[in-house]
């Protein structure tokens, strides 16, 4: 690992260890193992398969996003998606996000910045949908007004969760207009014009220095802006937008169903499908923080906290969350490794292709 990756790993590992300690400090090890022995693991099979099936729709969604840029087959979309998620499960810093545009650059000669923009759009669908879903669910689920959890120095209660839902809407309202600035030609032209005028700021410098600024900063920045905005071409197609929204809804419904199915094999986990949707989203918010590979620690912390909202004890929640974490990540790693073998892509190649972009 290079220095940057090492620092990322150490920082993430520290956060994950702290999260694991906070999550399990009040859970006796003996009780945890007793809970593991009481689980009906047959339910892990449908839960794992349903979870893995979401990546079919992720691949279809990314394929649709890429269509205005380059038409690719389902497998050309599926393999990079699986490889990127697999890398995120085994390496720090979420460098797997760079795998998809890197593979596109190698196989389809699509500029890295354009490929990265399509990945950004792909993730944007998830983020916006999560914000909306979280806000709707938190407004409709019943939470005891006296509910409160002290977690890692934070006092969390119903009011805090409601405020978080409103904040999510605020973030979405801020981000989406920013994306639209890159979509329309007029606003892009204004941004390009402002970039071209950067050398004017250095009016005291000579022509040689201004030319360097133009060649080293302005022209590359304008090229990146063009390539990046190309990735957002799908917004101009209402049909593609509708298809991607449908895929996003299916993805998150299947994710929640995977969580829900596992609960049938776990004693004393009596949470509704809607409740598990809330649990899933809260786990996603937790693992958005920097963490060790595979999100260990933060996943468990998010699950234990979220399930406490629905009256599940820390011991039962810890047992369920650990098993669920394994079920959700192990199939991704296996399938991602198979995809990497079939396409001849290695993690080292992804890193080198990134630099080429």
From TrEMBL:
Name the keywords, alphabetized: Cell membrane, Membrane, Transmembrane, Transmembrane helix
The record's subcellular location field reads: Cell membrane
Q: Name one Pfam family in it.
A: LPG_synthase_TM
In the bilayer, the protein is annotated as:
Multi-pass membrane protein
Any stretches that span the bilayer, and where are they? 41-60, 124-143, 163-183, 190-206, 240-262, 269-289, 295-314, 326-347
Taxonomic superkingdom: Bacteria
- Please provide, in alphabetical order, the Gene Ontology terms of the cellular component aspect for this entry: plasma membrane
Q: Which protein, by its recorded name, is this? A: Uncharacterized protein
| Organism the protein comes from | uncultured Desulfobacterium sp
């Amino acid at each position: 690992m290079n220095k940057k990756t090492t620092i990322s790993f150490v920082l993430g590992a520290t956060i994950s260890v702290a999260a694991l300690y906070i999550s399990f400090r009040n859970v006796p090890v003996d009780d945890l193992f007793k809970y593991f022995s009481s689980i009906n693991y047959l339910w892990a099979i449908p839960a794992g398969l349903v979870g893995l099936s979401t990546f079919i729709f992720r691949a279809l969604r990314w394929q649709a996003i890429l269509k205005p840029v380059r038409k690719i087959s389902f497998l050309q979309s599926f393999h990079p998606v699986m490889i990127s998620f697999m890398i995120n499960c085994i390496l720090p810093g979420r460098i797997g996000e760079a795998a998809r545009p890197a593979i596109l650059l190698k196989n389809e000669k699509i500029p890295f910045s354009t490929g990265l923009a399509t990945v950004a759009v792909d993730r944007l669908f998830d983020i916006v949908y999560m914000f909306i879903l979280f806000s709707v669910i938190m407004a409709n689920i019943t939470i005891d007004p006296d509910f409160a959890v002290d977690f890692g120095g934070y006092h969390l209660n119903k009011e805090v969760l409601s405020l978080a839902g409103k904040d999510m809407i605020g973030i979405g309202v801020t981000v989406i207009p920013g994306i639209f600035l890159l979509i329309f030609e007029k606003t892009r032209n204004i941004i390009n014009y402002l970039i071209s005028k950067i050398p004017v700021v250095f009016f005291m410098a000579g022509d040689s220095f201004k030319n360097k600024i133009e060649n080293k900063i302005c022209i590359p920045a304008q090229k990146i802006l063009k390539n990046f905005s190309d990735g957002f071409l799908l917004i101009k197609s209402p049909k593609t937008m509708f298809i991607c929204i449908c895929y996003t809804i299916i993805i998150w419904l299947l994710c929640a169903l995977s969580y829900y199915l596992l609960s049938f094999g776990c004693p004393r986990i009596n949470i509704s499908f809607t409740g598990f949707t809330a649990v899933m989203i809260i786990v996603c918010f937790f693992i958005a923080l920097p963490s060790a590979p595979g999100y260990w620690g933060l996943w468990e912390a998010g699950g234990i906290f979220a399930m406490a909202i629905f009256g599940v004890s820390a011991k039962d929640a810890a047992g369920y969350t650990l098993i669920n974490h394994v079920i959700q990540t192990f199939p991704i790693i296996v399938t991602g490794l198979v995809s990497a073998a079939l396409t001849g892509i290695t993690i080292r190649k992804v890193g080198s292709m990134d630099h080429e972009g």
